[in-house]
Amino acid sequence: MKERAYTAPRRFRFDVWDVIIHIVLIVASLVCLLPFLHVVAKSLSDDAYVIAQKVFLIPQGLTFDAYGKIFADASIVRSLYVSVIVTVLFTIIGMIVTICAAYPLSRPQLKGRVVLTFICVFTLYFGGGIIPDYMLVNSLGMLDTIWSLVLPLSFSAFNMLILRTSIMSTIPLSLEESARMDGAGHFRILISVVLPLCKPILATLSLFYAVGRWNAYQDALFYIKFNIDLRPLQLKLYYLVVQASESFQLEATTVQLSNPEVLKASVVVFATLPIVCVYPFIQKYFVQGVMLGSVKG
Fold it and tell me: How far apart are CA 297 and CA 207, in angstroms?
């Protein structure tokens, strides 16, 4: 009978760099988490405690009156609906355009792909600016329309380069050649071979598009002037934050607050929760997409 080799117990080794790294990560996590917890606590606290500045991380005088006022106002609920529609359209169109640009630029059969890639990269360093963008949107007749929030920024050259690099590193040409020998065309190869193998990076880029569009409000501030029904939730939040008076006028009712900080905090949480709820469903693909290409076997 063969005897098992004796293995000495593993000793704990103290590494000062591990301690430093853990401390830095903990501090960075707290810096990101504590402000959000503070806002949540303010949104759930009574006005008197917020005015007295006694609210930090735990709600004082727990109340949901601020959220009741939000849901009672039709304009904020309508702005949430507009933000959801714009984000979904923006993400779908952005991913379609990005895939259709990244796949051919990753294949050596495309003539002039170096020049085309340089043109896309050039836009990352130089842009026309806000005034030319506004003039272009105005000349196309997209002012005060939902397309002014979807089409102008629906293509990201940075995301296209990420997807192009991912396809080049993960999809070998031999796999594409074997599919072509079986009679598959370019679109068939893209749909049946390339996209299924690129799920992690596609989920990552979709999250980038969705979060970027959800948090944006500057273009809506410029392009949506008269059609208030198309104001997204972030623009509504912007008008609330810059409100200097002690009462905030809602379309359905007038909310009298001695301190509008409670309503501001509740709207911030209301605008943040939808995108936070989406992240856990694609977290697995997001981590794989970020690490893609970092280690090669």
Answer: 27
Its sign, for the CA torsion 234, 85, 44, 69, is positive
The Cα-based distances of 261 to 57, 60, 87, 243, 267 in angstroms read: 15, 14, 27, 11, 10
Measured distance CA(30)–CA(276) in Å, rounded:
17
State the total domains in the chain.
2
Is residue 134 in some structural domain?
yes
Tokens of 297: 């076997």
Tokens representing 131 are 């005034």
Last residue of a domain, one of 13, 37, 63: 63
DSSP category for residue 6: P
What is the enclosing helix (H) or strand (E) of 197? helix 195-197
In a domain, residue 93? The reply is: yes
* Residues 93/151, Cβ–Cβ less than 8 Å: yes
- Are 87 and 55 in a shared domain? no
- Per the structure, the complete domain to which residue 56 belongs is given by 1-63
Tens-binned pLDDT, residue by residue, of the chain (297 aa): 455 555 555 555 667 888 888 899 999 988 888 888 888 888 888 877 777 778 888 888 888 877 777 777 777 788 888 888 999 999 999 999 999 999 888 888 888 888 988 888 888 888 778 888 888 888 988 888 889 889 888 888 888 998 888 888 888 878 877 878 877 778 888 888 888 888 888 888 888 898 888 888 888 888 888 888 888 888 887 777 666 444 444 444 444 444 567 777 887 887 788 777 777 766 666 555 555 544 444
CA distance 160 to 242: 36
Q: How many helices (H) and strands (E) does the chain have?
A: 14, 2
> Going along 198-250, which residue ranges are E strands?
247-249
- Dist CA 217 CA 244 (whole Å): 19
223 in the same domain as 206: yes
